[in-house]
Amino acid sequence: MGAESRIRVLPTHVANKIAAGEVVERPASVVKELMENAIDAGATQVDVAITAGGRKRIAVNDNGGGMNRDDALLAIERQATSKIRDVEDIEHIQTLGFRGEALAAIASASRFRLITCAGEGEPGTEVNVAAGCVQDVREVGRPVGTTIEVRDLFFNIPARRKFLRAHQTEMGHVRHVFLVQALASNRVGMRLNVDGHDVYHLAPAGTLVDRLRDLFGADYLAGLVPVDAGGDGLAVTGYVSRPGRSRADREEQFVFVNGRATSAPAIQYAIREAYRAALQKDRHPAVFLFVSMDPGEVDVNVHPTKREVRFRNGGAVRDAVMAAIGKALATAGASSGDLAASSGEPLTRAAPPWAAEQLGIEGLPSPRAFHYPRAELPPADDTGLAFAGGAAPAKQKPEGDDAAGAPAPAGNSPWAWCSVVGLIGGQYVLLETEDGMVIMDPRAAHERVLYEQFLADVERHRVPGQNLLLPETVAMRPPDAARVRKHLDVMKAMGFGISEFGGDTFVVDALPAYFSETSSQILLGEVAGEIEAAGLRRGSGRWREELVAQAACRAAVRSRARLRLEEVERLVMDLARAEMPYTCPRGRPTLMFTSLKELDRKFGRE
Ligand code: ADP
Ligand code: MG
């Protein structure tokens, strides 16, 4: 007797179970697949119900095209799909699904029920499956559409069941999946019911903004700015958070490529880089980004759950996304009004619309109000500002000739008008604006202003230099000296009169005027430290200049004494003109906003 062949073709139910391990990781993956199928079927309403974190029951009901009896039975076969016929179709895939393995996998790992009807007046079909074996098929009545119910997920695969986490954790994943689908298909009405309670009830909305508001609320929306950029067959749209808003994780990053929720290293990189100067390390923005491009330029078939895509030209995608976010952030201030629930009120107002007397409080000093931008700035010469040498950056003047003092449209400004209310703890400045209140960190703000002015001058080769009366020799620690030496050429080009004296000592005989009041020792120390901290992080072409400027501005600001009120006012106005007023150059916030709406809510006035 010859030895028995050791290789065999797996029976279907075993193959399905293996596939189940790939496609179905946890309840959330079931929700994802079922919602995608419903949307592929053209549903305008998709309702999801979850019990016990999805372990007990997941049900998805849709009003899409449904299936006839034959298709219903075929649907739960492996590699049965109505969505592609040939390999070439994958290149032009329009639907979310196409591999034809989800239903088979889910049915093989649960008690599964499919009820569907493909046409008005036609009989509906109910199929019951347990652990991949069809139990019964019968005719039922139901409106056009499909309901799939998945009970006791992994009841027959104990190894998998063991890996399920607490209900809360599984629910978190389900919620995330639901959000992804809700964002991807904002025209579809959706509902998420958890243990009998509606968690989300989303109207078939018209636009992404409506959907975002329904999901997260109007206040959240006010923290976002629109992204809208296109060209060269590649469009990037959506919303991203203002630099001041961030979180410690990436939970609120939703990226869609041609409508498909996905992640791609090129896009992750672009997001990080776009916010590099705007967010603190370890903080992450919220992004809702939709990239659309020629489907032939994307490979979606690299991952069984289609989580990742690959681009033919990743560099182009990266650059486009970076540019799009950059543009959005640069105009961050102006757009808050469009997004917030429209109150219909114009953003530009001449002065605070109230007076202390109105409140019936006597003896309250009236805040000093001024608006941005103001035609004439207070003279800077006698205020002793550290950046007295630098003229305000030459930004474009707003259109229209406004009479002196009249409010002009706030171009890039975080506010239309604002008044300095006072100081808090001698450290923070409290401002009132048309939206509510703002707390400003004057040091961070000063760093930002100085940084932009300095870099703008460097770019135009117009750094005002200042010769030191006495050249200073600065001795540095060897590693710091090495770093400074490495960037000496850049520093020279930036207006630092600095040369090597031998060993780890340098001679400084001139400084950019911005920093002439700062000691060279501190300045060089900061620069070395900053270069150290930055490591090899390089993104933009100017990274060395930016690094040096960051460090120098930090040192200059840190070595200054307290600010006077006139200086604060000047600072507030300069900040409002900045390209990126919301953070210091290293990403710490300069401003914290609290809207009137938020105050109303907190005081229970809503
Ligand atoms: P895929 O989505 O990759 O095609 P699935 O296993 O998820 O594979 O689904 C198999 C087939 O079943 C689909 O191609 C589709 O024809 C049909 N189907 C699944 N869900 C639905 C639904 N909710 N409404 C209509 N048809 C569906
Ligand atoms: Mg599918």
Biggest sheet descriptor: 8 strands, mixed
Output the CATH class name of the largest domain: Alpha Beta
Between the first and last Cα atoms, what is the distance in angstroms?
A: 86 Å
- Name the hetero compounds present: adenosine-5'-diphosphate, magnesium ion
What does the radius of gyration come to?
30 Å
- Work out the count of structural domains: 3
Number of continuous helical runs: 19
Give start-end ranges of low-pLDDT stretches: 333-366, 369-410
Number of strands: 23
Structural class: alpha+beta
Q: Estimate the helix proportion, in percent.
A: 25-40%
CATH topology of the largest domain: Heat Shock Protein 90
Mind telling me which CATH architecture of the largest domain this is? 2-Layer Sandwich
Sheet with most strands: strand arrangement: 5-4-3-6-2-1-7-8
Beta content:
15-25%
Write out the CATH superfamily name of the largest domain: Histidine kinase-like ATPase, C-terminal domain
Give an account of the 3D structure:
This protein is an alpha+beta fold and 606 residues long. It folds into three domains: 12-203, Heat Shock Protein 90 (2-Layer Sandwich), CATH 3.30.565.10; 223-332, Ribosomal Protein S5, domain 2, CATH 3.30.230.10; 444-577, MutL, C-terminal domain, regulatory subdomain (Ribosomal Protein S8, Chain: A, domain 1), CATH 3.30.1370.100. The protein has 19 helices and 23 strands. The protein has an eight-stranded mixed beta sheet, with helices on one face. The radius of gyration is 30 Å and the shape is elongated. The protein starts with 11 loop residues before the first helix and ends with a helix. Bound molecules: adenosine-5'-diphosphate (ADP) and magnesium ion (MG). Adenosine-5'-diphosphate binds next to α2 and α5.
